[in-house]
Task: structure prediction
Amino acid sequence: MSCPHVTGSLLRPPAATQQVHKDDCTQCFDTPDQPWGLDVCLSCFNGGCNSPDRNHSFQHYRLSQHPIVLNIRREPKPKKAREESPAKILKLAIPGETEEDKYETKTVVKCLACDGLQLDKTIPGIAEVVNGVLSALSSTKQSEVKAWEEEILPCEHTLFLEQDEAKVLADQDLAHCSQCDLKENLWLCLKCGNLGCGRQQFGGGGGNGHGLVHFEQTLHPVSVKLGSITPDGTADVYCYLCNEERQDPDLAKHLLSWAIKISERQKVEKSLVELQLEHNMKWEFNMTTETGEELEPLFGPGFTGLKNLGNSCYLASVVQCLYSLPRFQERYYYPNGDLPLTLEPASDLETQLRKLGDGLLSGRYSHPPNREEKLESPYAKGIAPSMFKALVGKSHVEFSTMRQQDAFEFLLYMVQTIRRASHQTPEADPTTIFSFVVEQRLQCLACHKVSYKTDVQDNISVPVPIKRLPRESLQDKETFESVSLKECLDLFTQSESLEYTCPGCGSKEGAVTRTAFKTFPEVLVVNARRFEVVNWVPTKLDVPVVVPDEPFSLDDYFSTGLQPGEELLPETPTTSENDFVPNEAIMAMLGEMGFPSARCEKALYNTGNSDPDTAMNWLFQHMEDPDIDDPLNTGKAGSDVNISEDSIAVLGDMGFTAAQAKKALKETGGDMERAVEWLFSHPDDNGTETIAVQSEPAEVTAGDATMPATFKLHSIICHKGASVHAGHYVAFIKKMIGEQSSVAPDDTDWVLFNDEKVVRGGEVDEMKKFAYVYFFERCRR
Result:
């Protein structure tokens, strides 16, 4: 039976830049490994599951009217068969098992408009498209590779490469290393045309390092990996002088010198980026108790792990904590599978958030491994959040990369991203559970009049007191005295003195300010700042913070607002850069040294307006600033500055409070570098802004002011490593275990989410003391 829809459909092989969604369904986490496989639309390359209960493939057809699909189904090869046919191993190669070694792939072309009629894959117009889909990088791999490649830049050696006299090389099939017989992992010196084998590579690339030997003998810096060259002009280019992978903007021209036409090349080997991705995903984490026993794996609804995509543990830990909260579960988990109707589900945030909810909470992807699978791993395979990661990080300079990131910064970013998204009603925004109001009370020390200022926040960053314990020798690891969570909260809400000119009485005696809760959130997010700035570098300190297991009260930190007998300060105009009055004596001193007045004014403004030496040092450091002679007027002072949450988080990593960070960024027009300078030159400024005094506290716009305000620990994000931008993140969440556990079912216990591994217990008592982010849930009677 012939199909009339083949000729009527616009079928073309995917271009190199097109996304081919063949790893998982764009609306759920079904993969080609499911019994029904995955349908890839041959018109737009959307991936849709073919499951009897969902059939997102058919839904896509009804919406797009794209009827022709390629069904891809993979079946794992028996372990014995894989062992009997090992891959060819070259000299000194490091063997790595490929997808072809592990799975047998079966494909069928069918027409959904003809009730799933199977079509001949050799039909003209179909064969080329099928081959293009099967050979193309999947959207997941494409996003990962692109993220890595965006980190690779040209260098002076690729930009100003001078080549020797051109010559014709032997055909690649006949070419081999000039110093051995290897015919793969060959690197062409772009200076002289020498062909040398590379170094051994993770995943199967053999090599004797003769390319490196050639560099050491000749100092020719730039080489290209022959097997990685694509017709699109991309390839692995390595600079031995920089000892880094680099870009060569003139690669096609440089290759033509050796009679290699880039348009005729085909990529036949994995790139360094692809090999690096494989290596990152092999990284392991200890999953045993102190006695060496394996932690008990958990399976079922709410116990689904997230695969590590290379450096994505920061994302996994945040997502697990968010989706364990009832409001996020109610908002993004639809057991009946309802999803928005959209032609591009991979680019729709609402779809991807619901997809995550289904993947994590349905239990569909969390089953005990069978006997053969258990030999490789006792854990469920987990789901890969690659589509979500690519979408949510697309417009962010850091989260779009494959580098490790700060989990707390990502939490702030994800909350803001969800908040900006479309919600049917304000109540439908689940991030409102984090919002609350803090109130800052300021009192003049001379006239004792007061002002109140309120601010809506989603979290608090509490300072952790640093109490060093004595060391027997400098070689011993530095240890610290334990502090309680109450000590941190006391420090966060304690009264502080600050320099202040009273708008009521004119006194310069100063003021006392205190920050407290005006309302309380449903979920309080606390970031413990265990950092100390050493030589301008934030250094993480392992200070134990004791957090109570039992519910605790925050009533003592409640702001009672304006009290009887208190007199409010009069309102004053907003202070801005244009109101700044430089110290006349220091201005004269600097002027006598030959500095222009505009520069002197800027120096005094940025260094506290009190010390001529500090101002002079600032001037010498900023002599080359392009705007050094512009008048002191950025036009962005005060409340007009758009303050980035990311910038506040970065300054928080350096040990500054959110209030200090906000003020510094406002005072410097949002410029991070100037904000850091401002903070270090104003060490006694706690962030209180000398702005218009509120005669009445602002109306409560977030949180709940009812008492008592009792909270209990719900979950934590923990980090191991010297820096929050490196190391490894995991999450511990208090959950009802139920029948999933073989030990004491129907109880509540801590669950460790370590990427795709989900287990009961672990070293939670110890990790609680060193957690990076705490989620406290409000107790309701």
Observations:
- The chain has a mean pLDDT of 82.
